Amino acid sequence: MNNKENISETFNYCYEDKFDIEDDEQRKILINTEIDEWIIDTVVYAILRYNQMDKGKPIENRKPIYIYINSPGGDVISGLGLISAIKNSITPVYTVNMALAASMAFHIFIAGHKRFAMPYSVFLCHEGQIFTFGSTSKVKEQIDFESNELGKEIKNYVIAQTKIDEQLYDKKYKTEWYFMSQTAKELGVTDCIIGTDCVMDDILPGAPEAIYAQNEG
User: Fold this and answer.
1) Rounded to whole angstroms, how far apart are CA atoms 94 and 64?
2) How far apart are CA 89 and CA 188, in angstroms?
3) DSSP code of residue 62
4) How far is CA 96 from CA 2, 120, 134, 193, 202, in A?
5) What is the pLDDT of residues 135-144, one digit of tens each?
6) Domain limits for position 105
7) Model's pTM, two decimal places?
8) Residue 156: inside a domain, yes or no?
9) Rounded to 5, what percent of the chain is helix, strand, coil?
10) SS3 80
């Protein structure tokens, strides 16, 4: 089995849609499951790989990476690893909410360099849940870390990536804060609503870069 077959085998188990992640011309990635440690081995690896392929090219000559999201969220640490990869990717990464971007998937979505949502896409922003076990002192240390240091980092990240200010964040984050695409656009969570601000072709690989430039205005 050659190296490409090995890579394809690694990716296929979590991509029910059968997107070909080895299609270097298309650069399509589908996240349609819970966020877990697999995301580092697959999606983060793909972003690193495409950046390696593009090394030395100016940004304007790089083909964007498309991440299509339909996920209830999941592991915070793995999700933050993907967010770091997206934010530091020189090759543009575009995120698309196909149906649901909840919890950690919401945070991944707002990392996109450009963000798109279907007209009836749903978003969920909340503080998440902690699952831990061990001695009382170890559990307390984890809770302190996740509610203080990690919580502050996530709060600052959301405020920086959107139009959500600190007052609104503090009011809403401890609730199950659901909203749809129009509200997401007003909050600066998404840039474009498909069918209103752009057309379906604009979220498909190979769409003219001029279209994206127009949407920025």
Assistant:
1) 7
2) 21
3) S
4) 32, 12, 38, 10, 11
5) 555 545 555 5
6) 3-130+174-216
7) 0.79
8) no
9) 45, 20, 35
10) helix
